[in-house]
Amino acid sequence: MSKLRSYYSSVKAELGKVIFPIKEQIRSAYLSVFIVVTVITLFLALIDTIMSLTLSSVIN
């Protein structure tokens, strides 16, 4: 029981050291991720379209 109490108190102490992000940091991180994912998606769609058109022209 002593180990459990010691573990709990050390976990509580470590959680006290955690600095949670503020709303602006979360918003900017979300926006950055959204932009990067959108750019990568558009790039892959472009590559897929080019490869599809090339392959269909070779087949026909």
Overall mean pLDDT: 95
Main sheet properties: none
N- and C-termini, Cα separation: 76 Å
Number of helices: 2
Subcellular location: Cell membrane; Membrane
Protein name: Protein translocase subunit SecE
InterPro entries: SecE_bac (IPR005807), SecE_sf (IPR038379), Translocase_SecE/Sec61-g (IPR001901)
Pfam families: SecE
Provide a compact summary of the structure.
Keywords: Cell membrane, Membrane, Protein transport, Translocation, Transmembrane, Transmembrane helix, Transport. By secondary structure, the chain is an all-alpha fold.
Task: Describe the structure in your own words.
There is one protein chain. The protein has one domain (19-60). Helix content is 88%, strand content 0%. The protein has helices at residues 2-17, 23-59. The radius of gyration is 25 Å and the shape is elongated. It starts with a helix and ends with a helix. This is Protein translocase subunit SecE. Belongs to the SecE/SEC61-gamma family. Pfam families: SecE. InterPro entries: SecE_bac, SecE_sf, Translocase_SecE/Sec61-g.
Structural key phrases:
60 residues, elongated, 0% strand, mainly alpha, 2 helices
Q: Which secondary structure elements does this structure contain, and how are they paired or packed?
A:
Elements: H1 2-17, H2 23-59
